């Protein structure tokens, strides 16, 4: 067994032990196919007010510019599909936001994995990334064989669907690399047909500036009035394109206690949400991704749905 094979096996075994759904590895190099696609997307202003998407264009496409001397991208998936969902007659939160903010949960696991690599293999330098730096997560996960990018632009896996987070460790160690899997969307257009705001403008292209998640989380100004009545009660994020995807029939409940919601959250009615106080917001979302929109943002979203 070569040292590359041995190190790769060690890392994948430890990733599984840490609770990751799967682990794939690809060579750190310039993303040639993604470059023109990203450029076109930005030129068409599909990022809306997410101006951070325009920054660090070269780093987004070349991990060696992000982590000096990097050789390998270790992509990891962490399941967040919940055991139970909200009361159906309620304003809705995206399932990923039910529990503790995933940034904290995953960052801790990634740090543990990096420390393990350094302890077992030796002097290895690297950085952990969880959706907070200019890294094209889905592109790397697809290159690492963890799934294919579906028509809704999310990563899809035959065995488990798409309800998982993607994270990376970029390290300066050569490993054995995985190969991409084939696309299994076929002729299905369920996600395109179901999108309430027609944000999936063509297969595999999402206009971020029309997406409910963008309006309810990223947008700081008032939500444009032409989208009134189109949000299907989503007050934070949106899961429609994932909920209708046939591959998500295979989603299984996660086993991460930190992703479990506050006990009262799932049973809240529309009236409860309309009357939510700042104290209740803090109690439910103390360490939650929902804090991103702030209490005022959530109130704005609820008002937009109610009026």
TrEMBL record:
GO terms for cellular component: cytoplasm. [4Fe-4S] cluster 2 binds at residues 195, 211, 238, 241. Keywords: 4Fe-4S, Cobalamin, Cobalt, Cytoplasm, Iron, Iron-sulfur, Metal-binding, Oxidoreductase, Queuosine biosynthesis, tRNA processing. [4Fe-4S] cluster 1 binds at residues 185, 188, 191, 245. Residues 173-205 form the 4Fe-4S ferredoxin-type domain. Its EC number is 1.17.99.6. It catalyses: epoxyqueuosine(34) in tRNA + AH2 = queuosine(34) in tRNA + A + H2O. TRNA binds at residue 220. It comes from the Bacteria. One of its GO terms (biological process) is tRNA queuosine(34) biosynthetic process. Binds 2 [4Fe-4S] clusters per monomer. The keyword Metal-binding applies. Cob(II)alamin binds at residues 60, 131, 155, 166, 213, 238-239. Its main location: cytoplasm. The active site is at 131 (proton donor). SUPFAM superfamilies: alpha-helical ferredoxin (SSF46548). Its cofactor is cob(II)alamin; [4Fe-4S] cluster. GO terms for molecular function: 4 iron, 4 sulfur cluster binding; cobalamin binding; epoxyqueuosine reductase activity; metal ion binding. InterPro entries: 4Fe4S_Fe-S-bd, 4Fe4S_Fe_S_CS, QueG, QueG_DUF1730. PROSITE patterns: 4FE4S_FER_1 (PS00198), 4FE4S_FER_2 (PS51379). Pathway: tRNA modification; tRNA-queuosine biosynthesis. It is found in: Cytoplasm. Belongs to the QueG family. Catalyzes the conversion of epoxyqueuosine (oQ) to queuosine (Q), which is a hypermodified base found in the wobble positions of tRNA(Asp), tRNA(Asn), tRNA(His) and tRNA(Tyr). Monomer. This is Epoxyqueuosine reductase. It comes from Seonamhaeicola aphaedonensis. The gene is queG.
């Amino acid at each position: 067994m070569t040292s590359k094979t041995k190190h790769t096996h060690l890392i994948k075994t430890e990733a599984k032990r840490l609770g990751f759904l799967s682990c794939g590895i690809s060579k750190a190099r310039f993303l040639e196919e993604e470059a023109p696609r990203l450029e076109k997307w930005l030129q068409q202003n599909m990022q809306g007010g997410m101006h951070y998407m325009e920054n660090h264009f070269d780093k987004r496409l070349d991990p060696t510019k992000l982590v000096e001397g990097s050789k390998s991208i270790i992509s990891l998936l962490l399941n967040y599909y919940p055991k139970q969902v909200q009361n159906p007659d309620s304003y809705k939160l995206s399932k990923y936001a039910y529990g503790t903010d995933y940034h904290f949960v995953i960052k801790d696991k990634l740090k543990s994995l990096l420390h393990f690599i350094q302890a077992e293999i030796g002097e290895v330098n690297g950085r952990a990334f969880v959706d907070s730096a200019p890294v094209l997560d889905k592109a790397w996960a697809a290159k690492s064989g963890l799934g294919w990018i579906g028509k809704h632009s999310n990563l899809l896996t035959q065995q488990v669907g798409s309800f998982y987070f993607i994270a990376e460790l970029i390290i300066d160690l050569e490993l054995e690399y995985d190969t991409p899997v084939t696309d299994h969307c076929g002729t299905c257009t369920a996600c395109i047909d179901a999108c309430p705001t027609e944000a999936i403008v063509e297969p595999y292209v999402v206009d971020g500036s029309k997406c409910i998640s963008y309006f309810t989380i990223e947008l700081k100004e008032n939500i444009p009035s032409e989208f009134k009545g189109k949000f299907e009660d989503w007050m934070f994020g949106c899961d429609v394109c994932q909920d209708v995807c046939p591959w998500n029939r295979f989603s299984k409940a996660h086993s991460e206690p930190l992703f479990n919601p506050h006990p009262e959250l799932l049973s809240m009615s529309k009236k409860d949400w309309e009357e939510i106080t700042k104290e209740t917001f803090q109690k439910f979302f103390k360490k939650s991704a929902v804090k991103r929109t702030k209490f005022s943002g959530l109130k704005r979203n609820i008002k937009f749905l109610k009026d």
